[in-house]
Amino acid sequence: MAELHVELVAADRKVWSGQASLVVARTSSGDIGVMPGHQPLLGVLDSGPVTIRTTGESGDGTVVAAVHGGFISFSENELSILAEIAELTDEIDVERAERALERAKEDADAHAERRADVRLRSVTAAR
Amino acid sequence: MGSQLKVYKSRIKSVSATKKITKAMEMIAASRIVKAQRKVAASEPYAKELTRAVSAVAQGSGVQHWLTTETERPTRAAVLLITSDRGLAGGYNSNAIKAAEQLTNRLIGEGKEVVNHIVGSKGAAYYGFRDRPVERSWTGFTDEPSYADAKAVAEPLIEAIKAETAAQGGVDELHIVYTEFVSMMTQTAIESRMLPLTFEKSAEESAEVLKSALKNGPEVLPLYDFEPSPEEVLDALLPRYVESRVYNALLQAAASKHAATRRAMKAATDNADDLIKSLTRLANAARQADITQEISEIVGGAGALADANAGSE
């Protein structure tokens, strides 16, 4: 089965890299799914979960990451997701995110609320 | 005469105390270099991918964009100088400042007005002392810069280059001066133009990208689909590119600063060693002189006594 190579990098570290059969991400004009052989693509990502269907060496499974803004670029079966902040769902502390969400709602801090919301949605998507 | 020995002893003691301090600083700096280097390495994948994406849009889309096109008659240029907050780093800060001065003179020679942005209190103090106008300065994070710091530094720069006229604080060019971490032993102050985009003098990766692009011709670059549109992708991409370049420069400058500190402190420790050695020699000689004098006094005293006794008998 055809597969594509994925690099998920944050500004200060490489978050995940491996083989995948499908990557779904949210661009500013809607969700986009990339499979092997897709047309070269460069898009602006919205905050949201990025779902990676892993395959091959990485094993069959699903990796979900919370990505807060960034870019998706795909060419020659190499897909890279660049984000200022990106976290795998395993790294997300759900309780802390929930607390942050409540606090952000109280303070009416739209940014913080959005961040916490993206984290929680990503965790839900991974289950 | 014994007082001379005491003077040497106390000087040796004070030099040893100083040596302990410089040795400790050397070791702290050495451990920080490793940490800083690791951060530089960790930030590289992002910078590399971002540079690739930027060159893909800049060359592949054919769109005209304010971040990639050269102004016909550039009149204002922003210079971002990265120095450190603390000294004790040999020529680190003065080299960076010197490079900035050269760049400033060159830009003024080309008829451009220079707007200064400065990171690190050493650079800010240099410009402040000379009453030079400084647009913005930042301090407090030069030892361990985070991405948020880089964002804070990059933001007014991006604003300035977006602005249309000089009255709004707009600039036509953006230069950056920082100390490149070449190796443990070599750090060089370099300046490069960040915007409008030049690929040949920017980070190594982008130079490579351009080289391969030139070799293969631009038509080899894949024809990208832009989501939502090339202009919007560039709008979103290039500020991130500036931030990542600033971040990289800050990290390299931090690593260079620690390396310079380590070298300066190693030189200080070596000097202290030399000083202790020569002072010990002098102290030994003084002690020996004391002993010799005491013996000659005793012998002289005994001789005088013997003479006196012989005379009385």
Quick tags:
heterodimer; A: 127 residues; alpha+beta; 2 domains; 9-stranded mixed sheet; B: 313 residues; alpha/beta; Pyruvate Kinase, Chain: A, domain 1; 5-stranded mixed sheet; 6 helices; 63% helix; 12% strand; elongated
Question: Can you put this structure into words, describing what you see?
Answer:
The complex is a heterodimer of chains A (127) and B (313). In chain A, a hairpin with a 2-residue loop joins strand 2 and strand 3. Chain A is globular, with a radius of gyration of 15 Å. The longest helix of chain A has 17 residues. The two termini of chain A are 25 Å apart. With 127 residues, chain A is an alpha+beta fold. Chain A folds into 2 domains: 86 residues, ATP Synthase, domain 1, CATH 2.60.15; 35 residues, no CATH class. Chain A is built from 2 helices and 9 strands, in the order βββββββββαα. In chain A, strands 1, 2, 3, 4, 5, 6, 7, 8 and 9 form a 9-stranded mixed beta sheet that branches. Chain B is an alpha/beta fold. Chain B has one domain: ATP synthase, F1 complex, gamma subunit (Pyruvate Kinase, Chain: A, domain 1, 3-Layer(aba) Sandwich). A 5-stranded mixed beta sheet of chain B has the order 3-2-1-4-5, sandwiched between helices. In chain B, 63% of the residues lie in helices and 12% in strands. In chain B, helix 1 runs parallel beside helix 5. The radius of gyration of chain B is 31 Å and the shape is elongated. In chain B, strand 2, helix 3 and strand 3 form a beta-alpha-beta unit. The interface between A and B is medium-sized, with 26 and 29 residues.
